[in-house]
Amino acid sequence: MAADRVRWGILATGGIAAAFTADLVDMPDAEVVAVASRTDASAKAFAERFGIPKAYGDWASLAEDADVDIVYVATPHSAHRAAAGMCLEAGRHVLCEKAFTLNTVEAQELVALAKEHDRFLMEAMWMYCNPLVRRLKALVDDGAIGEVRTVQADFGLAGPFPPSHRLRDPAQGGGALLDLGVYPVSFAQLLLGEPSDIAARAVLSDEGIDLQTGALLSWESGALASVHCSINGGTPVAASVTGSEGRIDIPDGFFFPERLVLHRDGRDPEEFTAEPTAGPRTSLKHEAAEVMRALRAEETESPLVPLDGSLAVMRTLDAIRDRIGVRYPGEVGTN
User: Fold this and answer.
1) The model's pTM
2) DSSP per-residue letters across 19-78
């Protein structure tokens, strides 16, 4: 890895890969040197779009490219284990989209591979790297609202999505939970850690994926979290954290907020807004910057998105799927 630039490879060419690459090419300390897809045509079109010098029509060639420091895995989560595992075994560092994998077993395997090969690995939970979300966590950790009592968070898209869409495809890990529900679950666990008990209900499609899911998470402290996700109804995508001495509201887009409001007993509401220098609220640059900081510091995981936290979220997602009866084709097993 050059001292001044981190060299990135992009694995997959869908919408999130394009969004992340667009941010990377605008960062002076990042260089996108290669892209891979399942077809030459897709890889070449993506490379031409972003001025990437190398395009591969297979994943293995990217994984083996010694000019690549880190690979951003942006496939559907059903392929995360295979794609990220291939890259780790070839000696590449990896940033892997969320949900981290299909299930905990696969996530544990990736973590084990990263440790075996002494490589950096991080789930691309960009919410955890967002400056305003980090500010919210600091407020909670500092006791601004006292002891946390409840967390509420939702993420729903109006749809409708046809049966042919990846969100409806069991073979691609379709459904609301792994694609959208990972955000409210991760938000709750950012503040409270892994829950001690989980209850859940869902509406399933004819294909057997969840169209909408609601879960109640509970902790030994007495705290509760109500989380909801949907691909058949648009929701506010809001979050609220209530404590013994106040409340923090994120009224819109809780995982990439523009503002949050702190309510404390006997005081006027206090509003916190994103810094103008933070860029567009959809920016993935904070995540990329954290990855590159960690690589330069020779860290194998990020303190903002620790692997133990990603594994804990996967265990919760597994438990919710167990409660609602969703299982994907070819799953070897879940915890």
Assistant:
1) 0.96
2) HHHHHHTT-TTEEEEEEE-SSHHHHHHHHHHHT-SEEESSHHHHHT-TT-SEEEE-S-GG
